[in-house]
Fold this sequence. Notes:
By secondary structure, this protein is α+β, with helices and mostly antiparallel strands. It is 35% helix and 25% strand. The chain is built from ten helices and 16 strands.
Amino acid sequence: MYVVVSEWHRGFRSSDYHFVIEEYKLVHISRYAISQNRKYKDMVEYIIDLNKLRGKRVIEISSSNSGIFCKAYMYPAEDLALEYSRRRVEDKSLSLINNFKLDYLSYYEKKFLQMEWRLYYIPMIEELHRLFAKLKSLNPESPYVSLTSLVNCQIKSHANYPLSFLIPYSENARRKSLETLTKHIHQLWIAMHILNNLAEHGLLKSIHLDFRQSSYYAIATFDCRNDLCSLWYEFDMNPHTMCRGVLWYSEASDTLKGFYKRVEKVLHRKRLRRAPLRPDIVILQGGASCDDLVKGFKVKMIIECKNRDYWYWAKDINNQVIPYKEIFHPDIMVLTSLKKVPNYAKKQLSRHGIVIVDEAYPGGKGEKELLQLIRTL
């Protein structure tokens, strides 16, 4: 008996991927296809001989337009011949994948698992579990934690693999998804570490754990010397998207107009095509909400996070990192790197007044260095 299994190959955007359990491995359904047909640009039909799958079980990974679902769906392989509503589906945690190897991973992906994922990111995720629970307990009435679906499911699932590795059809697609996932895990770990330290010193005033881009509110406010400061995640000053488009219906203050004039001057002087206007983490004097931002703001600190090797992001120094300092005029500009930064690069950046904090990961020397800088505010 033959069945057609269709998959949309769109990363984690309205896609369904099918894996067959083979002892200790998850094998993508394409390995069992006697033929396949690309029906549309990103849709593939696999013709499967069900006789080859008798007695086996299928695990299905699904996503919507908003991203991956935080569940795995398991059912007998024979049920592929049935409509989905008639299949004997069991909902499982995504941690189910911890019991298997993914047979399609490349040598470099397996090396990443050993050399980076388990060394850096698993400890970060474990700390994020603890810190989210701790900070929410300080203010039970605070909103729930808002994260992208991929990061949210990764943290909640306790999966030992990066969920990006569940994209079976393309190593390139897995790599792009993984870059986004690891970047946000590193940024979140840094932001939550700062908040935890502020809480331990009795400085935290309020929390609003919305880690989506262009939030209307700071993720926290805290006491800084004799003033109130705010901490923003992916602080967005792009005029069409900042604060969910606030400038579409609010008139910019003279201070804000002056900011965008400075942006134009930096663009012209450095011959940049596009202005870098979304630093990873920003600490402002005041500025608890966008209502304050449209009146003007003072930047106390910018923390730009890098989680890749120096050679990968070195190109960003002149077209992103230094322009951030020239555009936002922070009191302190920090580049926080998960990996070690070469001494010559540290000297180059120090000439521009940029502080380098490298080896920023659980147990790394940068962990304490960054918190010491925060305490100078």
